[in-house]
Design a protein that fits this description.
Shape: globular
Radius of gyration: 30 Å
Number of helices: 22
Strand order of the largest sheet: 13-14-16-17-18-19-20-21
Low-confidence stretches: none
Largest sheet: 8 strands, mixed, barrel
Mean pLDDT: 87
Number of strands: 21
Distance between the termini: 53 Å
């Protein structure tokens, strides 16, 4: 459809139905009654339609292949772009359970097939009217708030004039004190004043056994994106709007402070239990689900909130704020846009994480790492074709530490670069040793996973070239694994680097294929040789024996693009047989071997196992 030809004065309706007859009938009916109508046969087409022109209403069929109407509706409601679009389900299913499920998925109405045209028109008209009314209410509320603020400002100016010279000296003193204790942008208390009030609440709790309070630490999840993309002036305007919305969510006796950047602190006093603090946090999160209407933009931001319960046993107010901050970061780690209540175990975990970071820095200096190697099996020959290099940390007191525990810390601290380069060099050196020991291993490959951080370093190609030159490894035997998330970081720069690696005869592997958020179109743009199917999909093969889950589709994608495929996490003979039947090229997993210490690899290879 040519979207440029849509009449902007008509309401736009998107019909999602895999049945062409249904699309034709509904489209004809609604078009005759003055609506712009667009059609989509599946979820992908619907998403494209929404991204191009946001519809005013969606008519959604339930019974569709691959992704049914319930899931389509859930996805629409989960997206900031489409969450507010009303969805009317149209289905031949007339059971109460199906209707309840439809409303639970986010639908606003339900029409049963075969339907009456008049009923469809009335329900469509009603939902469009409701949406218009909601928008008008939001607009009126915003205008009212602006008038109230304007009137408040006028009254303040009048009061200042009345005070005159008599209160000039007092005003000057108050201004200096206000500047020292308040945030210049939002006018809220700053960190210094917040700590003072927190100390006051803590002292009161120590004197009055029935006095209880809570501390909330709030951080905006998407503020940096708005600030970087729209500019600091818009960012400042948004901070003011956030402060105002937070103030509206609290009682006058509560303390709201801007602690710095997009971080806010709240003190809730005279509570009876933690439930009241949780209710305030939930209300704030609900308010943040609404758009912030600025002077030139309408933006959405989420918030993560940490809650710490006022404890009279606490020595310093800074500790309570620290605990709320720790809980806030836990909320972010759990998915953002939520709250989390602090417990003492979290402080212990944070302390352990800091110790782990310090130990990791020393480990990089002392090279306390070991590379283990997991065999990769050719499903055509049944023999070993390569090895994947997997780093382990030999901690001096804790023993062998899995990468799942220390790699995230290495990523966050930037130590991952040094670790990755060390692993790449060690793996290349080891492969050269094995190949020199046994001439039959000249075609043996070695795979190394590189972090996204390495590809933002312009020196990465020079470092790889130096390793190849010093170890004298054949570049054709080197495979570099890259997760889907790497692609999303810097597409153009990454594409250039990968192309240069490909020119060096180095093979490129997309690791954990299917678990990221990248589009399939990236596969056409980037020069990958191999797709690596994540073990979660391999595991589901046994749970869904009839369709084999998504593995056949992934293998089809790889085959159609001239790529090989490696299935990881193979643990059973059943999985091996099915992968062979599906013409998968390679596999690795515990069925063949666990990751091996370097000293055991040659013995394993020379044993010549056959699958």
């Amino acid at each position: 459809m040519n979207y440029k030809r849509l009449d902007p004065h008509k309401k736009d309706i998107l019909i999602i139905d895999d049945t062409a007859d249904n699309l034709r009938v509904l489209s004809s009916l609604l078009t005759k009654h003055g609506y712009n109508v667009r059609k989509a046969l599946n979820w992908q087409m619907a998403l494209t339609a929404c991204e191009t022109v946001l519809p005013d209403l969606i008519l959604l069929d339930i019974m569709m292949p691959e992704v049914d109407g319930y899931k389509v509706c859930q996805r629409l409601k989960a997206s900031d772009l489409t969450a507010d679009i009303p969805v009317i389900f149209i289905s031949a299913l007339d059971d109460v359970f199906d209707k309840v499920k439809a409303f639970g998925a986010g639908g606003v109405d339900y029409i049963t097939k075969p339907f009456e045209f008049e009923e469809v028109l009335v329900r469509v008209k009603n939902q469009l009217a409701l949406k218009t009314a909601r928008l008008e209410i939001l607009k009126l509320n915003t205008e009212l708030e602006q008038r109230v603020k304007q009137r408040t400002g006028e009254l303040e100016k009048a009061l200042q004039k009345l005070q005159g010279e008599v209160t000039f000296r007092q005003q000057l003193q108050n201004k200096l004190l206000n500047t020292a204790l308040h945030d210049s942008l939002t006018g809220l208390p700053n960190r210094v004043l917040f700590i003072r009030r927190l100390e006051k609440a803590l002292n009161r709790a120590q004197l009055e056994t029935d006095f209880q309070f809570a501390v909330l630490f709030l951080d905006c999840d998407r503020f940096k994106l708005v600030n970087d993309s729209l500019g600091h002036l818009v960012g400042d305007e948004l901070l003011i709007a956030i402060a105002n919305r937070l103030e509206e969510s609290l009682l006058p006796v509560d303390t709201l402070a801007r602690l710095g950047g997009d971080e806010f602190g709240i003190i809730l006093e005279n509570l009876t239990d933690i439930t009241q603090a949780i209710q305030v946090a939930e209300h704030i999160l609900q308010q943040f689900s609404l758009a912030f209407k600025l002077s030139r933009y309408e933006v959405f931001v989420n918030a993560s909130i940490g809650i710490s319960w006022g404890n009279s046993d606490c020595d310093k107010p800074e500790y309570l704020l620290r605990d709320a901050d720790t809980a806030m970061y836990r909320a972010k780690a759990l998915g953002k846009a939520r709250y989390h209540v602090f417990n003492p175990e979290m402080h212990h975990e944070a302390t352990q994480l800091l110790e782990l970071e310090n130990d990791l820095r020393r480990a990089v200096e002392r090279q306390e790492f070991i590379v283990y190697y997991q065999p990769i099996i050719s499903l055509v020959t049944g023999k070993i074709s390569g090895l994947e290099a997997l780093v382990r940390w030999q901690h001096p007191t804790r023993g062998l530490i899995s990468p799942t525990e220390f790699i995230p810390v290495a990523e966050e601290t930037g130590l991952i670069h040094a670790i990755n380069i060390w692993v790449l060099r060690s793996a290349c050196e080891q492969l050269t040793i094995w190949q020199n020991h046994n001439s039959t291993l000249k075609s043996l490959t070695i795979s190394v996973n590189l972090s996204v951080r390495l590809f933002s370093d312009q020196k990465i190609l020079a470092q790889i070239d130096q390793i190849i030159q010093s170890t004298k490894i054949n570049p054709a035997c080197l495979e570099i694994e890259i997760t889907e998330s790497v692609i999303m970081e810097n597409c153009q720069a990454l594409k250039k680097i990968l192309q240069q690696l490909r020119e060096r005869k180095i093979k490129l592997v997309m690791d954990d294929f299917g678990t990221g958020y990248s589009s399939l179109s990236y596969l056409y743009s980037f020069p990958f040789n191999v797709l690596k199917i994540d073990q979660s999909f391999v595991k589901r093969m046994q749970e869904n024996e009839e369709s084999m889950g998504l593995v056949p589709a992934m293998l089809g994608i790889a085959n159609s693009m001239g790529m090989s495929a490696i299935a990881e996490g193979v643990e059973t003979t059943f999985q091996l047989v099915q992968l062979r039947n599906l013409k998968c090229n390679f596999a690795q997993g515990y069925l063949f071997s666990r990751p091996l210490h370097p000293e055991l690899v040659l013995d394993f290879i020379e044993a010549a196992p056959q699958w």
